[in-house]
Amino acid sequence: MSTEEKSAAPRSLAEALRVRDDVSLAALLRSRPDLITPVPTDLTQLATRAGTRASVVRALERLDRFALQTAEALAVAPDPASYGELLALMAGDEEDPAVAAALPRAAALLREQALVWGADDRLRLVRTARELLAPSPQHPSPTGLGPTVREATAGMSPGRIQEILAAVGLPSTHDSVSAVSALGGLFADRRRMAALLAGLPAESREVLDRLVWGPPYGQVTHDPAAHLRALLDRGLLLPTAPGTVVLPREVALHLRAGRAHRAPEPVPPPVEAAATHRPQVVDATAAGQALAALATVDELLKEWDEGGPSVLRAGGLSVRDLKRTAVALDVPEPVAAFWVELAYGAGLIASDGEADERYAATPAYDEWRELPPAERWARLAGTWLTATRTPGVVGGRDAKDRTLSALGPNLDRSAAPEVRHRVLALLAGLPEGASPVAESVLARLRWERPLRGPQQQRETGTGETRDDDLRSRIARWTLSEAELLGVTGRGALAAPGRALIGAPVAPRPAATDGPGEPEGPGDKLPVHHHRTPPLTAPPSPAERAAATATAARLLAPLFPEPLDHVLLQADLTAVAPGPLEQELADVLGVLADVESKGGATVYRFTPGSVRRALDAGRSAADLHAFLARHSRTPVPQPLTYLIDDVARRHGRLRVGAASAYVRCDDDATLDEILADKRAAALGLRRLAPTVLAAQADPAALLEGLRAIGFAPAAESAAGDVLIARADSHRTPPRAAPEPVPDGPPAPDDTLLAAAIRAVRAGDLASTTPRKPGPAGEDGGGEGGTPGGTLPRTGPAETLATMQAAVLTGEALWIGYVNAEGAASQRVIAPIRVEGGFVTAYDHTADEVRTYPLHRVTGVAELADDAG
């Protein structure tokens, strides 16, 4: 490198950022959005913020495995290191071609994210990252390497170092520094090290082999065995503390053939296809799942229409209420938790806020039910994709060892939306109709976001990776939840699911009944290794809205047309051979009980269900007409008799409020009630031949008489029959829960452009040279450049300089303190000075502004050669 090139080389991260163009700065801020929250005043502050521990840790955690391995290698390389030294650490003596091909991308990524700076001959890892990744006794390096010879011998006596030199055949030196350098040079020389190791006994080589890949520390007694003494005498093991020895880094690198990692992973593992189905079959299966999802959510909301389970004191559903909900939906409890959380996330259920707080449907549920089925599904799927609440953790324990309950607090996992979106994107990278091998999806995610520190993935004794990290669990839940929701069909991503994440959807050919690709359990095909899409920035709200609209449009033709009829059978059941029109489903849901669900839904008519319809205001004639209108088969005689029999007895008894009373025109019926021992608990007594008074309240009296076998109806104070309306309980308007973001939001292009313009203007204000004052003072800094101190001038001099600049059109460097007391440096071009204010073009803000002169701390003219 020439003298001019050396002088032009950046001496700090701030200088390295200063020579970047706007595109490069935008890439940095886009990948590390925490750096512009808030917008830094200049590039020096941006560099300082980029080197803080919290920001560096976050950046390292978002690197892929090979980029992280590259950073780990730089942490054990000389500082600074050349690109050749880095390549040698990554590719080893064998010069792995795959590593050599992938390393430029990894190095460019680290440099783009300001984790590495400097030219290729002087690469520097930022200090905080080096401290996090460099080896130490308290925090071993992820590479498994230990300290260098120089670091390990820092506290060793000079005499002992000279003894080691003699043992390895090196001449003695006059000082310890040169002795350590000579020893390090020997250990780094492949030929001489091979000769040195060849003279060791086999037991000594076994000790080195156990330490070579880490951890590099071992224990020895005060009188070590001969094979250990041979290693200690030659400096191949160096003492770090009483009874503790370490394998020097140079020795380990020789034994590793120069590689910093046992297994570099330059290429992401492919997502493998387990089976392939026709895309039409996948779409049809997913559409069936989507219909079932809508029916399940609708059933859940109807179950809670008149007030659902109570809210626990700490928030959420009790274990008992979750079990009841699972029984009502006929699903396992974890699946019930998923549906409950999905409805809550979509804003369809919430707590009612009453004194006796319960969960109930919200007004948004009524609006949701009015939407077309495809749009209802798209709203649920869009909510699921972006929600941070994670129903998979329900039943686990929080940090305080409390059980996590459905709808309760502490269910948010900020990584969930990113993992869900990425899993679906990986599925979209497979051939259409291909379902993935779940383990290959998890392996790919682990490569893209490897864990670090205590949570770093561990290996079992069999060499298999333990899958207990949160991201892997979320990925597994995503695969199962996507199938439940109809985003996937038979494990493969369906067309609406592709549209949901913004992936392109190929046109579907018309389905045929002829032979095609095999389907079913025996359709396993050879594994596909398909190119999966790279990581991309999260979509904006507008893009998400467009994606869900496209998904709804693609799903709508896959749904069957709703039916306007059922098939009535003589065993008091009705069969719905498909989805029903909303009005028909609502009425039939009141008139009959659902007995079984599936492709065809079976409803059963019972005295209780018929009475429920009569309580809702229907007459027997209405029910007969309804069934005759919507049945493709004649109305069976047993069903007609059932309706007439229940209607004949319905309402003969009237229950009202006294505390409560029973009224009946037939006094014989009242005599029958009084004679029944089961009615004793109601506390009935006769007030008149046709009226009984009760000690129980009206609701308890209704239930008690119905339990005995009567069919009473409630009546108002005016004597009219009270009609029990469906959907009677709603919460006040509630907003759906907001996702908890995973750090600062990604900036859009407008914010990036404004932030870069502000940073560059602030940097101009802080680095522009200015003319020295009359006494040779320039207001701070050296050599006529600002050093962070605001310029200081008197009011008269400030005013005179401003007025002169208006006439000459020159720019000035000023110090300014705003109304909140925050001080800043600015470069302005004054336009007008009057009334105690200066109007100027502010280069820092890139706009015309007006400043009170009393808030200007001072002014200085810019040097003639200011850029």
Task: Summarize the structure in words.
43% of the residues lie in helices and 12% in strands. It starts with a helix and ends in a 6-residue tail after the last strand. A hairpin with a 4-residue loop joins β24 (837-842) and β25. A 5-stranded mixed beta sheet has the order 19-20-18-17-21, covered by helices on one side. The protein has 34 helices and 26 strands. The model is unreliable at 1-7, 453-467, 511-530 and 774-787 (pLDDT under 50). It is α+β, with helices and mostly antiparallel strands and 867 residues long. α6 (65-75) packs across α8 (97-112) and α6 crosses α9 (127-133).
Short account of what is shown:
Residues 566-688 form the Helicase XPB/Ssl2 N-terminal domain. The chain is built from 34 helices and 26 strands. The chain has 867 residues and is α+β, with helices and mostly antiparallel strands.
What labels would you give this structure?
867 residues; alpha+beta; five-stranded mixed β-sheet; elongated; disordered N terminus; nucleotide-binding; hydrolase
